[in-house]
Amino acid sequence: MDLPAGEHYATKEIQELCDQVKTKVEEITSRNLVEFKALIYREFKSLHFATYQVKVCVGEPEYFHVLFQRTVDQGEVKTTVEQVEQHHTKDDIIVPVNSQ
Question: Mind spelling out the 3-state secondary structure of the chain?
Fold first, then answer.
């Protein structure tokens, strides 16, 4: 399957990042997510931060689009969930956001 420009298949590293934000996503959505598998992602990098948009399967047929940012502040890496879009499907394209 060809992916839209800018989208990539999730790697082990992307899944590990998603595992780190799963608890926060559960808090935001008030849901206990048994499945949380990264499928597709977009990545925007700058000198001081990286922004990720990830399509995550939370149990067929539902997918979330999760936007989070990783920053480095005085040597400490912080990951912050910025947005969670629920009720997507496997075929929905991740609509790019402008990184700040």
Answer: CCCCCCCEECCHHHHHHHHHHHHHHHHHHCCCCCCCEEEEEEEEECCCEEEEEEEEECCCCCEEEEEEEEEEECCEEEEEEEEEEEEECCCCCCCCCCCC
What is the largest distance, in Å, between two alpha-carbon atoms of the chain?
Answer: 41
Query: Which pTM value belongs to this model?
Result: 0.90
Cα separation, 84 vs 3, in Å, equals: 21
DSSP state of 58: S
pLDDT tens per residue across span 32-74: 999 999 999 999 998 889 999 999 999 999 999 999 999 988 8
